[in-house]
Write a structure and sequence with these properties.
- The protein has 217 residues and is an alpha/beta fold.
- The chain has one domain (5-207): 3-Layer(aba) Sandwich (Rossmann fold), CATH 3.40.50.620.
- It is 37% helix and 10% strand.
- The protein has helices at 12-25, 41-52, 63-66, 98-112, 135-147, 164-174, 196-207; strands at 5-7, 29-34, 56-61, 117-119, 154-156.
- The protein has a five-stranded parallel sheet with strand order 3-2-1-4-5, sandwiched between helices.
- α5 links the parallel β4 (117-119) and β5 (154-156).
- α6 (164-174) crosses α7.
- The longest helix is centred in the middle third of the chain and has 15 residues, at 98-112.
- The relative contact order is 0.18.
Length: 217
C-alpha cells in the first residue's frame, strides 16, 4: 500500500494538512502544481515543507493548462484585489476548476502508487468564495474516484468544516513552521498584508493570540 498523497500548495492550510497527515499515517507523498500562478513563492514554500517532513515531493508542470484558465488574478495580468476575503471582488481570485484539476492529478498519482487516499486542505473559510472548496465538491469528487479506477482512492479533507483559526491551532500543536509558508497573492519579497489572503491569515493568527512569523510590507 502506498503513502497518502497530499495536495501541497505551500500555504498555511496545506502545510498544516501535510503535518496532520504525517502525524496520522506516519508518512506521506506530496504533489505541488505549477499552473502558471503569478509567483513561485508558494512552490518554494511547498518544497521546504516537504523536505522538512521527509516526503517524496513531485512538482507537476501544468503551465500549459493554466494558460487556458484565463480571467483570474492568480494567473493573468488582472489586478489582485485588496480587502477582506468575503468581499465580492475576491471572486477575481477564482481559478476555473483549479481544485478539481489538482485533486484529479493527485488521484491519478495515488492510483498509480496504490495509495489509500488523497488529502486536501480545503476549509470552511473558503466556502463562500470558492465552489471547489465546498462539502458538495468533496463529496462529489469522492463519488467519482470510487468508480473511476480499479484501485479505489478515498478523498480526505480533514479541515473541511474548520475555519482558519482552527487550522492554526492544530498546526501549532503539531509544530508547523509557518515562517516557511506563503499565503500572499501578490508575491513580493514580503507579504503585502492587504490582499484577502493576507488579511484572512493575519486575522486567524490574531484570533488564536499568536504572532504571524511571516514578514509583511
Amino acid at each position: 500500500m502506498g503513502r497518502p498523497v497530499v495536495v501541497l500548495s505551500g500555504g498555511m492550510d496545506s502545510a498544516t494538512v501535510l503535518a496532520y497527515t504525517v502525524a496520522l499515517y506516519g508518512e506521506a507523498d506530496a504533489i505541488t502544481a505549477n499552473y502558471g500562478q503569478r509567483h513561485v513563492r508558494e512552490i518554494e514554500s511547498a518544497m521546504k515543507q516537504a523536505e522538512r517532513y521527509g516526503c517524496r515531493h513531485d512538482l507537476v508542470d501544468l503551465t500549459s493548462v493554466g494558460a487556458l484558465l484565463s480571467g483570474s488574478a492568480l494567473t493573468d495580468e488582472v489586478e489582485v484585489p485588496f480587502g477582506h476575503y468575503a468581499e465580492e471582488t475576491m471572486k477575481a481570485t477564482v481559478v476555473p476548476n483549479r481544485n478539481a484539476i489538482l485533486a484529479n492529478v493527485a488521484a491519478g498519482v495515488a492510483v498509480a502508487r496504490e495509495a489509500p487516499a488523497i488529502i486536501l486542505g480545503v476549509h470552511s473559510g473558503d466556502h463562500a468564495i470558492y465552489p471547489d472548496c465546498r462539502p458538495e465538491f468533496v463529496e462529489a469528487l469522492a463519488g467519482v474516484l470510487k468508480v473511476a479506477n480499479y484501485h479505489p482512492v478515498r478523498v480526505e479533507a480533514p479541515f473541511l468544516h474548520t475555519d482558519k483559526a482552527g487550522i492554526l491551532r492544530v498546526g501549532h500543536a503539531l509544530g508547523v513552521d509557518y515562517s516557511a509558508t506563503w499565503t500572499c497573492y501578490v508575491g513580493g519579497d514580503k507579504a503585502c498584508g492587504k490582499c484577502g489572503a493576507c488579511q484572512e491569515r493575519l486575522e486567524a493568527f490574531g484570533l488564536i493570540g499568536k504572532t504571524d512569523p511571516l514578514a509583511y510590507e
